[in-house]
Amino acid sequence: VPNSNTFINKSKNYSENKQIKDVPYYINSNKIWEISLLPHGSRKIQKFLANDLASKEDINEIFSQLLYDLPSVCLNTYGSYVLEKIMDLLDGNQISKFIDCIQYSFLKISIDEVGNRIMQKLITLASINKNYEIITYLASSVIEALCKNKFGEFVIQKVLETFPNNDFIFKFVYYNFHNLISDCYGLLIVKKIIEMMKHKPKEFKISY
Q1: Which of 139, 184, 188 minimizes the C-alpha distance to 162?
Q2: CB–CB of 116/151 below 8 Å?
Q3: Cα end-to-end distance, the chain, whole Å
Q4: N or C terminus: which one in the chain shows less Cβ crowding within 10 Å?
Q5: What is the pLDDT of residues 64-105, one digit of tens each?
């Protein structure tokens, strides 16, 4: 008598393999961007990337097609899942290109419930690749809006945790202390900085 679990596993593997085989077609047909925004397409691309089936050329082409309108992918629930998978497979130059492509939507993505997850991951990867300059500039230009937003404050906290050149945040908090503590999300940033200063007080200095 066939083992029922074996049959179920084989059926599941067959279904998954069939889904994954669609992805090369999407790549060759230049359909990755539109398919990534749909539930079934997002799942297929994620599995293709997660199962080590994608060659470097596949990864490069998928990323290239997502760049068609990268901010929209960042803000889409299903598209963001694809981005979270592929971001771990990108090199430093591609991370730089990612940052360049979203810079004019930096605030919109950062304060979005879906987008802020992508922004936090991007900040972590930028830190690993020592690519601080553009994100520091972008965050500093909209720092008040980020500090006072439910999701934006996560982005500021991530910069505080990962970037060595976060003096601009300390300056802003110093000069806007009373304004921030009267805001429920701004208060969280103040608390974060106080906690960091308790653990490593010598590392935090404000340049006037």
Answers
A1: 139
A2: yes
A3: 79
A4: N
A5: 999 999 999 999 999 999 999 999 999 999 999 999 999 999
